[in-house]
Write a structure and sequence with these properties.
The protein is α+β, with helices and mostly antiparallel strands. It folds into two domains: 283 residues, 3-Layer(aba) Sandwich (Rossmann fold), CATH 3.40.50; 241 residues, no CATH class. It is built from ten helices and 22 strands. Strands 13, 14, 15, 16, 17 and 18 form a six-stranded antiparallel sheet that branches. The chain has a five-stranded antiparallel sheet with strand order 7-5-22-20-19. Strands 1-2-3-4 form a four-stranded parallel sheet, sandwiched between helices. Strand 15 and strand 16 form a beta hairpin. The termini are far apart.
């Protein structure tokens, strides 16, 4: 493969530029207004002369930029998801990435970051930065020089990458996205060279990622890590599930180095011997958006510092919870709501100069889960001002064990933690979130801070004439008084549809529990209501009963329900006390055989009065 020394060197590093007020306003952010990126050709959208239109040079057939919007690279897709734009730094923009940039090359990634922070107009508040490790040094070492990268060589590239992140942080960057290395053994140029170089490339990527994770964990600040290697592995294990039929040949036309006919770019993972296709970039940008949808969205929603959000430093498997089963053809990822739309809404004085009216939204992307396997179908996020809440939806399996909700305190702020755990989840599906709100307005209450969490669990079964049943539980920690007691309010809603009698019923379960701080006893009041619909007429039937002395062991409830599959849809509503309402619309569909279930879509809208 030494005849490929003249190949066009390209690379991936991304960063994001932001427009902010002051370098000390990290804890006062309300949305990302800019993305600033650093890297190689994987992130360069026009700085290198050979790449005037990212991966879409003019006249390149069906991937010409003027005819195919799918040719955007990932950083452009991420900017679009965040309702902002990114332009090359050579055109006055905030994408400093340069094709062929690396550590040992002239256009070094670290130099890109240093150039930005030295700019007197550099902004850090409300700015999302992205640093994507470059493949250039390893392509040169493996393909051009025909050598195996030594541990020392790998460590030097890692150190330069981490130094880039450190440089941005020291200058005032609060939010830095850091993907790990893709599998270099999967590059078409490695495939052409043969199995030996493929093995070297794959092992180099693994060693780099292990060293990068170790060095990143030593930092005294948080980095938003995303697993590009893991995502690519899922694609290569199940290409058809992601719409790819060609993983090894670049689809650019012409491709003089490959010597093969150009395949259809719509089904190809690579654009040329090194760069990924627009479709692959779109998949990665969706993944990054989904990661930002969690911890970063939480940080903005609750005005919490990123250090208080514990969901950000996890792997791809934890973030996306792919389904793994011999019976399931395709894995499913949480990629659904590609961005947090409320980050674009003026919600406090940081954005608009005045306190906005309270409003909240939550979006949910679903997933397909076999009953016999472990999986979480999706997560939905939302908030309302001035009170904040977050919403999470999980499709639990029959061997799911516990869902625990508990309150905690961080400095002067109260938070609620939700831990989903169980033996079948293993480590890959366990999740922990830290949610909350600062001591600002408390939704009309004089009793101190309020914290709210909405947990939606969907359970499905087929029994008799009933096609489906769904349960969505809203758990609300309305008031926390650390010196006395804690009041909990919860509501839920079910939809039952009987296709034989044409009855559909929306039933609700309201739960109010007063528990002492020692968690030894308490009182529980259950409000049961139902709205039965027949021929589009609703009938409300409320019922109330009381259960006393709830032992604290009930804080963790085992779930083991025999169910198969369901198809239903409906509108649920729960009232949070006297001054708020949350309405949830859900659609649940049967997919595949009866042993599968899925939550396809759910949306929530809330008000405070």
């Amino acid at each position: 493969m030494k005849n490929l020394r003249h190949l066009r060197r390209v690379f991936l590093v991304a960063a994001v530029s932001t427009i902010a007020q002051a370098k000390d306003c990290c804890s006062d952010t309300c949305h990302f207004s800019t993305i600033t990126a650093f890297g190689d050709s994987y992130t360069d959208i026009g700085n290198a002369p050979a790449r005037p239109e990212s991966i879409c040079p003019s006249g390149s057939g069906n991937y010409a930029p003027d005819t195919n919007p799918g040719c955007r690279i990932w950083i452009q897709g991420l900017a679009k998801d965040l309702c902002t734009i990114i332009r090359p730094s050579s055109q006055g923009g905030t994408d400093y990435a340069f094709a062929a940039a690396g550590v040992t090359t002239a256009a070094q990634v670290l130099a890109q970051a240093e150039s930005y922070v030295k700019n007197p107009n550099a902004r850090f508040c409300n700015n999302l930065f992205a640093v994507r490790p470059s493949i250039q040094d390893f392509v040169t070492e493996i393909i051009i020089n025909g050598a195996t990268p030594t541990p020392t060589f790998i460590e030097s590239v890692v150190e330069a990458t981490v130094q880039t992140v450190q440089t941005l942080h020291d200058a005032g960057a609060c939010y830095i996205v850091l993907p790990n290395m893709i599998n270099l053994g999967n590059l078409p140029i490695s495939v052409v060279d043969g199995p030996a170089e493929q093995a070297i490339g794959a092992q180099t990527s693994r060693s780099f990622n292990a060293e990068l994770l170790s060095k990143t964990n030593e930092l005294c600040f948080d980095v938003i890590q995303v697993d590009a290697f893991g995502l690519e592995k899922e694609v290569f294990n199940n290409p058809c599930c992601f719409g790819f039929s060609n993983l090894t040949v670049g689809c650019c036309c012409p491709c003089p180095l490959s010597g093969t006919p150009a395949p259809d770019c719509c089904s190809s993972y690579y654009w040329d011997l090194l760069d990924q296709s627009g479709k692959a970039h779109k998949l990665f940008s969706d993944y990054v958006s989904s990661v930002l949808n969690g911890p970063i969205c939480y940080a903005h929603m609750t005005e919490m510092p990123l250090e208080s959000i514990y969901a950000h430093n996890v792997t791809l498997k934890q973030q996306l919870a792919p389904v793994r089963s011999n019976d399931l053809e395709c894995p499913t990822f949480f990629l659904g709501s590609n961005y947090c739309p409320l980050l674009q809404q003026p919600t406090n004085k940081c954005c608009s100069g005045k306190q906005e009216k309270s409003k909240s939204f939550a979006l949910l992307a679903g997933g397909l889960c076999p009953v016999t396997d472990h999986c979480v179908s999706g997560i939905s996020y939302g908030f309302s001002r001035p009170r904040s809440y977050a919403s999470s939806s999980c499709a639990f399996t029959t061997n799911m064990h516990t869902v625990s909700l508990f309150a905690s305190q961080y400095n002067d702020d109260y938070y609620v933690n939700m831990l989903v755990n169980g033996s079948s989840f293993k480590t890959s599906c366990a999740r922990a979130f830290n949610l909350g709100q600062k001591r600002t307005q408390a939704r009309g209450s004089t009793h101190g801070n309020q914290v709210g969490v909405t947990t939606e669990g969907a359970y499905y079964f087929v029994q008799g004439d009933t096609v489906g049943v769904s349960l969505l539980a809203d758990v609300e920690f309305n008031r926390i008084k650390m010196h006395g007691y804690t009041e909990h309010h919860a509501g839920s809603a079910n939809l039952v549809y009987n296709d034989r009698t044409r009855y559909s019923a929306i039933t609700g379960l309201g739960l109010q529990m007063t528990a002492h701080t020692d968690c030894c006893s308490g009182d529980m009041i259950i409000n049961l209501f139902s709205m039965v619909q027949k021929d589009w007429k609703l009938h409300n039937h409320p019922v109330q009963f009381h259960v006393a002395s709830l032992p604290c062991s009930h804080a963790e409830v085992p779930f083991c329900l025999p169910f198969s599959v369901v198809m239903n849809s409906g509108l649920d509503a729960s009232f949070t006390g006297c001054n708020g309402m949350v309405a949830t619309a859900g659609f649940h569909a049967k997919i595949g055989a009866q042993k599968y279930f899925a939550t396809v879509f759910s949306c929530a809208l809330g008000w405070n009065f």
